Amino acid sequence: MKKQELLKIMDGELMEKLFSFCYARTSDSQEARELCSDIVFELMKAANTEGDIGNLYGFLWKVARNTYADFSDKKSRNSDRTYHGDPEELFSVLANPDGGDDSRELLDAVYRQIAFLTRAYREVMILFYLDGLPVAEIAGRQNTSEGAIRERLSSARKRIRSEVEKMAESSQRPVVLDQIDYWIMGNGNPLWGDPRKLCTRQLPKHLVWLCRKKSVSAAEAAEELHVPTVYVEEELEILRRGENGQYGLLRWLDSGNKAATGKGAGGTRAPGRYAINFLLFDTKEMEQLRAAYREQIPAFCRVVRDYVETHKEEYMAFPYLNRRKDWNLILWQQMHAIFHVFEDCVEGILAGKYFAGVDTGEDDRRPFSVFGHVREGENFGGGLDGMSGENICGCARVTVFNITNRWVQPHLWAGHDMANDAALQLAIRAVEGLGVEELSETGKEHAARAIECGYLYREGDRLYTKILVCGAGDEDRLFDIANGLAHGYLEESAQNVAEKVAGCIRRFVPEHLLGEWKYANWLAAQPVLDALLDNLVAAKVLLPPENGVGAEGCWMNVEK
């Protein structure tokens, strides 16, 4: 598009996103508005210049980031001319420069208490007592009646009068928040907006925790944490809006304790109460959720051992492209799928029997969701990463997968540069065999490393791919045999697990988050994969690689 067309796309939705960008990077809403105005001004200047824009959103966010950098630099320079001492001490001196120590202490307590008022009352107190504005002018600025302003002043004075004696003691107490930490996972595309990035400090973590079981107002949170409301209000709004202005760790609730509707996270008017917006379990709750699966793990492992032995010939008959098929490698490849069959069986029962009438629409429509629990010492499960490349070593497309768990270390991660991985390229070339004499001295060095890490093996003067290789068209049925476990083999265990997980969800999950019940099941199933692997390794059904590095748990699909 042409730069002159920029003004056409500057609608309310874009302004909301720009304001969210600014709000997350400034200390308060006033600064956010100033930064947002600067960004809009720069976009308007760009609209009066010649040229094309290839990537609209890339251009917009580049302008926003550059403007923010200039804004921060200007703010830093201005701070050199700004008073950096205690503002309450400064207010005391300005209010009564000749007053004694007692009057200064009293004023200090009053000013501290003003900071703990909610925004509406705090602004009225500051405008009336500190700025000296008449009630009529304050009413005009606040777009309300003079009676409403007088009522706010009266309520604020009563609050301060009743609390100022307590503040004499509490104002001397430093704010020290206990250490709290969460393990928060995500599902979907985090590039859409990942609210976890805004919950790394202790204050937002504590605010999230306060909102976990009941809705709270800014004033209630400030009083509970002994943090001035001015800070709490800003932090609550940041947590509500999230990184993208649409999905945050908190949400508004209406007066009936139901999820507020309307503009959602990007709205402009808060009902006044905040509640948690994702599943977050404490340690005892997680113990009860996991216990539902743990009770069935012995039976599950017995079923799996019998099943894979019974279906061994079918597994070995799968048309892998390898010169030799390794039963141990096939089993390692299947472990994640087998685990997920059990988890999916439980999820199906939960969906049909226990949560059939629960609306999951909000989570289904969202590109990314988070869920988690209080971090404890125990870690479970592993990962499965896959990456693809095109036109590599004569193949139109290559997709490589590898798992990671307590027994198997990964060879590569998502985003791995396959085009510059010489060892992996040799594995691709050696599917049908590769003569050692065909390699240069450097190539032989790469081949030695590929053999060491499990990509290749040598047979005479030829190299062959050791990791499992599947041809185009066969990858869709790679786990069909494992999926057969869902047909009656796990029914009894899955029913028992589902009943107990459903009971935990009903007890632990707020009503407005019941639509995200499946994430509770995912968390509950965390111990199963590790327990399955440990059981099969102990029974010598699975043989782990030496030092965790080998062909186990790594495979690729190739399309010629």
Shape: globular
User: Strand-residue fraction?
Assistant: 5-15%
Q: Which stretches are poorly predicted, pLDDT < 50 over at least 5 residues?
A: 78-97, 170-174, 261-271
| Distance N to C terminus | 38 Å
Domain unit count: 5
- Helix/strand/pairing category: alpha+beta
Helix content: 40-55%
Oligomeric state? single chain
The description of the largest β-sheet is: 4 strands, mixed
* Strand arrangement in the largest pleated sheet: 6-7-12-11
The number of distinct helices, counting runs of at least 4 residues, comes to 22
Average pLDDT over all residues: 84
Number of strands: 12
Rg for CA atoms = 31 Å
Notable traits:
22 helices; 560 residues; single chain; alpha+beta; 3-stranded mixed sheet; 4-stranded mixed sheet; Arc Repressor Mutant, subunit A; 5 domains; globular
Descriptive notes:
By secondary structure, the chain is an alpha+beta fold. The chain folds into five domains: 3-79, no CATH class; 87-170, Orthogonal Bundle (Arc Repressor Mutant, subunit A), CATH 1.10.10; 182-277, Arc Repressor Mutant, subunit A; 288-319 and 327-381 and 477-549, no CATH class; 387-471, no CATH class. It is 50% helix and 12% strand. It has 22 helices and twelve strands. It has a four-stranded mixed β-sheet, covered by helices on one side. Helix 4 (87-95) crosses helix 5, helix 5 packs across helix 8 (146-170) and helix 6 crosses helix 8 (146-170).
